[in-house]
Every structure is written in structure tokens, then in C-alpha cells.
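Students often ask why inverse folding is considered easier than folding. One informal answer: many sequences map to the same fold, so there is more than one right answer. In these notes we will look at a single instance of the problem. The structure comes first.
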């Protein structure tokens, strides 16, 4: 009993050392920020958007793969589809996705990008920060972004003061606002997408800047809405081949917490009516926001089923350690091998490194040496004639031995067991 208690104590100490050295230590619990995905019922999710689409007879599709799977997802209706993507993304767009996404748009589909440019949603901070967001945004839309810098105050410029102001602004941008900044968005001019809309509502949980878009390749960008307070653009439309790209500078407008405010739902209805043709689909990009069907190590190690399995294995291991185990008998230091084991090991080694033909030639050489000594024949002479003159050896066995000997000299395939049996019988009658 004492030995088992000692074993249990040492096992627990080994586990404690392993935990201290290799496993991450738990951090203080924090409120998890919900993501803009179609299955999320929290304030930042798109579940209300998905349920509204279902109520209107449009079953939304959840994209849980990279953009290269869009063609397969809309194979039944290659044109007249709407893809709703939110940015910044946890899994940003890759180089391999750019061409498939643009080809899909130019085939006659619509990309709606809800970009956290002029607002800073809480889901875009923390693990949602994308340090290369301008590049990834350009890859998605072929549009470039430029910050709208407010006019400086009429004070004497000072490089030292300007550097300090920029540092203070950068530090303040990472601090969550005590009260979210409520933003109003108004239509810029009459347009079918803005029909029936007087104002849109948005919120920003963190300080944000204002941005404008610039199109490359000579394409024109149409401004559809603006923010009255700063006069900054808020909604853009860009034609791309037979399709179009709609960009919102505000990423929160269609989340659960805001889709029912002001005319946000009306804007979504206008976009769906103008983009989705008969047979078309509304696709919500869940993959780039973390809801993926491919391997996600964070989701795997965060799965409770994995933790339950590990705890069960640990409990079984502890039971095995402290349970009744027969003690192993002490073996002698010197354990000599018998002759048969040595022969078996040597034979196994030779069988692995020698070909059957080489083995057969050696067997014949040993046999011929014994026959020459018995018949007093020269060393260079093959004793076939002498063996043929011996009546004790059957002729068919002698013919078979000669055939096997010829095949061995040619390196052909042969049966070593049959050869050994024939040589044993020949030795018995000749020697």
C-alpha cells in the first residue's frame, strides 16, 4: 500500500511539473466579443439578417470556405447572387482568392463589403485586428483607402508637438469608449439603392477616423451616402464587369443591434432587391470571420469535448498507476543464447542480404567439395559424370540437380527448400 501511495504522489508531482512547464496558464476571464456571422445571436451577429431573409423566402447560404468555392456554391445560378462580407477579417483574404473573387463578381454578381473604416466596431479590435487591412481591402474591392485628415488648428506648427499628438491619438484609439459613438448617415443623392431612406444608424465602440475611396484602372466610384457631421463619404458603388461592388464605410449597420434602427433594414432590402435575380442566392461570408469548415486550431483546442477526453484519459491513467499491478521478476544480468538461436539469427541475416541464386551456388560448391573428396576427383572438375555412374542416385533427381545448378549460375529464380532436400538425399546415398 505504501508503494502505491508513493507512486500516486510521484504521478501527481509529474503532472504538476508538466502543467507548470508546458501548458498555458489561464488568464483572467473577459467578456467574449461576438462576431458578425450568420449564426450569432449576440449584438454583433447576423442572425437577425439571416432570419429576415428566410422570412422573405430567401434561404441564406453560409460560406465556410475560401472564395475559390463561390463558383461551386452558385453553380445552379452563376449570376445574380449577393455576397455579404465584413471586414476586417480574422482570416484575411489570400492571394489565391483574389482572382476567383473578382471573376465571380465580373460574371454578374454583387459583393457587399461592410468595412469598419469610419467606425471601429468592438469585433474589429483584439483578435480581430488586421494590421494589413488596407491591402486586404484593396484585394477584395480593387479600391484604395485614404484617411481624411481634419484641418489643423491655427497654431504655430511644432514637430515635437505634432509627434506627441500622434502618439496620444494612437494610444487613445485603442481605448474603448465609455459610451459608444452614435453616428447618423444620410443619402447623398437620389439612387435606387437609397429609395425610401432618410437616415441610417451606426455606432462605434472605439475612436475612429474618416476615409475616402480611390478607384484604380479608371473606374468611377459613386458616393451614395455620407455622414453629415464630418461630411465624410459613407457608402460607395462601383461597377465591375457585369457585376458590382457596394462598400459601406461602417461595419455595424446590419448587425443584430442596429438592423432594426432607422432605415438600416430598408437599405438591406434595396440591396437585395437590386442584386439578387430569380434563382440567385444571398451568401454570408462566415469563413473569413472565423466560422470555417476547414481546420481551425483555435476552435479545435477550444472544444470542450477535447478537454473532457483529456480529463478522462488522465483519470484512467491515474487508476492504472495506483491499481494492483504484478511486479516484474528480476532477470539475470547474463542470459546466454543457445546455439539454435544463434543459427536462426545468422540465417535470418544471410537470408536478408543474399540472393537465392548466390545461396544455391554456395550450397552446390560445398556439395561438390564433399563429392570430389569421396570420389578422388580433381578440384576443377564437376562431378556430374561420377554421380551419373552411381546407381544409388535416381536419374530424375540428378537431372533436377543439374537443372537447378544451371539456373543458379544464370542467377534465375529457384526454390532453395527443394534444392536443400535434393542435396540432403544425394549426400545420404553417395557419401
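Output (designed amino acids):
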Amino acid at each position: 500500500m505504501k508503494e502505491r501511495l508513493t507512486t500516486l504522489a510521484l504521478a501527481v508531482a509529474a503532472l504538476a511539473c508538466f502543467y507548470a512547464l508546458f501548458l498555458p496558464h489561464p488568464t483572467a476571464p473577459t467578456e467574449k466579443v461576438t462576431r458578425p456571422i450568420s449564426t450569432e445571436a449576440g449584438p454583433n451577429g447576423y442572425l437577425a439578417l439571416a432570419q429576415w431573409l428566410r422570412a422573405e423566402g430567401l434561404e441564406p447560404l453560409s460560406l465556410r470556405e475560401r472564395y475559390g468555392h463561390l463558383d461551386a456554391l452558385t453553380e445552379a445560378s452563376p449570376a445574380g447572387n449577393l455576397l455579404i462580407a465584413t471586414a476586417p477579417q480574422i482570416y484575411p483574404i489570400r492571394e489565391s482568392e483574389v482572382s476567383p473573387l473578382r471573376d465571380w463578381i465580373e460574371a454578374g454578381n454583387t459583393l457587399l463589403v461592410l468595412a469598419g473604416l469610419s467606425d471601429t466596431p468592438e469585433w474589429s479590435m483584439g483578435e480581430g485586428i488586421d494590421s494589413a487591412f488596407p491591402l486586404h481591402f484593396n484585394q477584395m474591392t480593387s479600391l484604395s483607402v485614404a484617411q481624411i485628415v481634419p484641418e489643423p488648428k491655427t497654431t504655430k506648427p511644432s514637430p515635437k508637438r505634432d509627434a506627441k499628438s500622434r502618439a496620444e491619438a494612437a494610444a487613445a484609439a485603442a481605448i474603448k469608449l465609455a459610451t459608444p459613438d452614435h453616428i447618423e448617415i444620410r443619402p447623398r443623392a437620389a439612387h435606387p439603392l437609397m429609395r425610401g431612406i432618410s437616415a441610417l444608424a451606426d455606432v462605434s465602440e472605439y475612436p475612429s477616423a474618416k476615409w475616402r475611396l480611390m478607384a484604380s484602372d479608371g473606374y468611377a466610384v459613386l458616393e451614395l451616402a455620407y455622414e453629415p457631421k464630418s461630411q465624410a463619404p459613407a457608402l460607395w458603388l462601383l461597377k465591375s464587369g457585369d457585376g458590382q461592388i457596394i462598400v459601406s464605410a461602417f461595419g455595424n449597420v446590419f448587425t443584430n443591434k442596429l438592423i432594426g434602427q432607422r432605415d438600416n433594414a430598408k437599405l438591406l432590402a434595396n440591396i437585395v432587391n437590386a442584386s439578387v435575380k430569380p434563382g440567385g442566392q444571398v451568401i454570408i461570408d462566415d469563413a473569413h470571420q472565423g466560422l470555417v469548415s476547414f481546420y481551425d486550431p483555435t476552435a479545435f483546442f477550444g472544444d470542450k469535448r477535447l478537454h473532457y477526453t483529456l480529463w478522462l484519459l488522465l483519470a484512467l491513467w491515474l487508476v492504472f498507476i495506483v491499481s494492483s499491478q504484478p511486479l516484474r521478476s528480476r532477470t539475470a544480468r547474463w542470459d546466454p543464447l543457445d546455439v539454435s538461436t544463434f543459427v536462426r539469427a545468422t540465417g535470418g541475416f544471410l537470408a536478408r542480404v543474399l540472393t537465392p541464386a548466390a545461396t544455391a551456388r554456395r550450397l552446390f560448391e560445398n556439395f561438390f567439395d564433399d563429392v570430389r573428396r569421396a570420389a578422388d576427383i580433381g578440384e576443377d572438375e564437376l562431378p556430374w559424370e561420377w554421380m551419373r555412374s552411381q546407381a544409388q542416385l535416381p536419374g530424375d533427381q540428378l537431372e533436377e540437380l543439374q537443372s537447378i545448378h544451371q539456373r543458379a549460375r544464370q542467377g534465375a529464380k529457384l526454390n532453395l527448400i527443394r534444392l536443400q532436400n535434393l542435396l540432403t538425399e544425394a549426400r545420404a546415398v553417395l557419401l
